[in-house]
Design a protein that fits this description.
single chain, about 70 residues, mainly beta, three-stranded antiparallel beta sheet, two-stranded parallel ribbon, 1 helix, Transposase_11
Length: about 70
């Protein structure tokens, strides 16, 4: 678990369907950057496109189409 101002923090990364049904969850320490989980989450994604926060941005030519939510 990570620390934030002296207390533990965590991040929960989720892949869901368009209806919000969870397909896959990952938990990481709070100080770990989101981009470190992008490849792992994409393995569990369905469909041809996805929406993700810009923290998951991966500058690779092989990445699927990504619409960023900001």
């Amino acid at each position: 678990m990570g620390h934030s101002r002296g207390v533990f923090s965590t991040k929960v990364h989720a892949v869901t369907t368009t209806g919000g049904k969870p397909l896959h969850l990952e938990v990481t320490p709070g100080q770990q950057h989101e981009a470190t989980m992008a490849e792992e989450l994409l393995v569990h994604a369905e469909g041809d496109a996805f929406i993700a926060d810009t923290g998951y941005a991966m500058p690779t030519a092989s990445s699927p189409t990504c619409a960023s939510s900001g």
